[in-house]
Records
---
Amino acid sequence: MVVLTAREPRAHYGVLASELPTTRRLLLDVNVWVALFDDAHIASPQANALIDTPGIKIATSPLVENGVIRVLNLPSYGRRGALGLQRVRAQLMHACASLDHQFWADDVTLRDDAAVDFNRVHGHNQITDLYLLALAVKHEGTLVTFDQGIPLAAVRNATPQHLFML
C-alpha cells in the first residue's frame, strides 16, 4: 500500500488528475518507471498512485524499456548503486504482464516535419520527451511524465489530452 503525504500536489500540465483518461493508453516515460521501481525515489508515491488507478492501460516502447534498464543500472544510481540488469528486466516484465499493457514500436521519426515543429524546440534536453509525446500522439495515447518543460506546441496535433504531468 502506498501512503501519500499531505504536501501540496504539483500542478498538472495538460490533463488534471481527476480527468486522467482511463480510456486512453498511458505511455509512462523512463522517470515514471524509475519512480515505480525505486521506493526511495521522491516521486514514488505519485507513480504508484497512478499505476493503481482502476482501469489503467499502459504502453511501453523500446526507447522507454531500454531507458529504464539503463538508468536503474548506472553505477552512480542512488545510494545503493545499480539495481541489477536481470532484476530490473524482471520487474518490467512483471509490470507489463500484470497490467493492461501494449507495446508500441518506435515508429515515429523526428526527421518527419509532420511529427515535430523544430522551430518550437528549445534545446537538446527536450528531444526524448518530444519524441515520446509524438509517439503518444501517433498511437492516440497520453505521455505521463514528471518533466515540466515539454512544449505541447512542438509536437504536431498534440493536445492537452496527450500529455499528463505527475
---
Amino acid sequence: MIRSIKVTALLFVLMFVVTGCASKKCELAVAGCKKPCDTGGCGNTSKWTAFGNKMKLTSGKPICASEILADKAKHADKLIRICGKVDTVCAKKGCWIRLAGPITSETLFVKFTCPVNGRLVPMDAVGRLAIVEGVLELKEISEDEARHYAEDSGKSAEEIAKIVGPQQIVKLNSPSAIIDLTKKIALAD
C-alpha cells in the first residue's frame, strides 16, 4: 500500500515536471498526439509504471534519445533524464533496454544498476514511451560483452558471429525508469 502511494506520488510529480524534450525535433506521436515527449498532454502518467529506484532529478525536461546520440560528448558523465521509444528489452531479466528516437536509427543502451530479484522491465515495454534517468557514459565494451548483449536481445547466431573486436556504445547507467505500458507509440519524422 505504501509503495503504491509512493509510486503514485512520484508519477504525479513527474506529470508536472516532465513537460517536454529540449528540442522541437524530438516528437513522439502517441495516439495522434504530437507533443515533444509531453507525458501530461499525451498520456496520464498515473498509469505509467515505475521501475527501479526513485528518480533524483526534480526539475527539467527529458532530453530526446536522438539528441543525446547526436551530441554524445556534450552529455557524457552527467546525470540526465532521457525520453524515447523502447526498442529492445533484455529477454533474460529485463535488466537493460535500448531507447530509440525519431531522428537516428542508432539506439541508446540503458543498463539498470539497481539490484532486483527476478525480472525488472517486461518484454511488452517494447514500442512504448519511456523516461529514464542516469549517468551517460561513452564506453568501449569487449567482444564477449557485446555478444552477450546481442544474445540477450534475441539476435541470431549469424548476427552474433558478425560482432568482432571491441565495440563502442553509448550507455546510460540508470537506476530509474518510468514506462507507459498502456499504449504503443510511433516515432514522428
---
Amino acid sequence: MMIQINLLADHPEFIDTLAPWVWQHWRALLDQDTLEDRVARFRKHLNRDTLPIAWVAHDGGQVMGTAALRVCDLPGREDLTPWLSGVYVAPQFRQQGIGQALSQALAREAHSRFGTSQLYLFTLDRQAWYAGFGWESIESCHWCGHAGDIMVKQLPAPALQADPAVQRPQPPLKGDGPARLR
C-alpha cells in the first residue's frame, strides 16, 4: 500500500465517499445533520491557501481518511487558532498509522503554509492517542453535551530566526461559519 496525503481540492471526487462515512460516524451527536449538509461542509474545505482546508489520505483511487485545518473548531474558543479538526479514518483502514500520518502532515502544513507555532484540537475520547505523538491536554471542554479536552501541539521553531522588527503578514483566513466538518 502506498499512502499519499493530498489536498482535498486535488481530489474532490473523494467527497462522495467521505461524506457518508463522516456523516454516519457523527450522526448520533449531530442528529440534525443531513448527508447533504456533510457534502456542503466538505465543499467549503476545497481551499488551497485559506482556512478551512482539508487533506485526504488515499492509495490511488481509494480514499482512506481525511483531516482539516480550521480557524476555530470549538465554539467559545475562538481565541485559539488554528485547529486540527475532522480527523477521520474509515474503519477498514484503522490501526495502520493513517490517522497519525494525517495529523502529523497537517501539523507540518500549518507550520509551513501559515507560519503557526502551535496547533489546537479538541477530542472527546482520543486524548491518549494524540498524546502519543506530542499533543498535550491544556483544559477540559464540552461539545454537544459531551466532555472532552482541548489539546495543543507545539510546532518546531523555524531554522532561521526572522528579524523581530519586521512584521510577517498574516495568511488570509476564511471563517468556518456555523458549518463544521467533523
---
Amino acid sequence: MKRLLPLLLIFFTLSAFMPVGGEGMIAWQDGAMLSWDMFRGAAEKDNPHHAQTHCMLDASVKNIDNSIYIEVRAYFLPSRSWTRVRDDRALLLHEQLHFDITELHARILRKRLVDAFRQDRDLALIFEQSFDEVNAALQKMQDEYDRESHHGTRAKLQRLWQRKIEASLREYEAFSEASIRFVLQ
C-alpha cells in the first residue's frame, strides 16, 4: 500500500501534461497501418518536410481490488499530424515507423516497470523516472531516425531502420500488452 499513494500522485502529475483521448487519438495496434486520411492537421508553413507524424506515450495508474493497474500506450495524434502529399507510399511507411518507434518505447517502459516491481523497488519512483527517461530516449531515437534516413528519402537506410525497429519490437514482444497488473501483498 505504501507504493500506491505516490503512484497516484504521479498519475495525476503526468496526466496534467498529456492531451486527453477526446481528440481522437489512435492507439498503436499490431498490424494496423496508418493511412493518409488519418493525417488531419494543418501543415506547418515554415516546415520544409512533406509530412509530420505526432505520436506520444500515455501512462495511467489505477488501484482496483488490491492490485495496481498501469496502462502504457503509444498514440498517433491525427489532429496534429499533417501531410502535403497523399500519394507517396514510401513517405507513409516512413511516418508509420515513427509510430512504431513510439510503440517500441511503450514496451521498453512496460518492461522497466515490471522489472522494478519484481525487484521490489520503489515503483512510484521508478515510474516517474522511467517515464521521463523513456520519453527522452524516444525523442532521441525519432530525431536519429529522421537524420539517418534523411526523412525517409534514403531508401537503403530507411530499410535498415525498418528492420531494426521490427527486430526490436519482436525483442520486446513479451511487453506488447498495454495493461500491466501488479498484485499488492
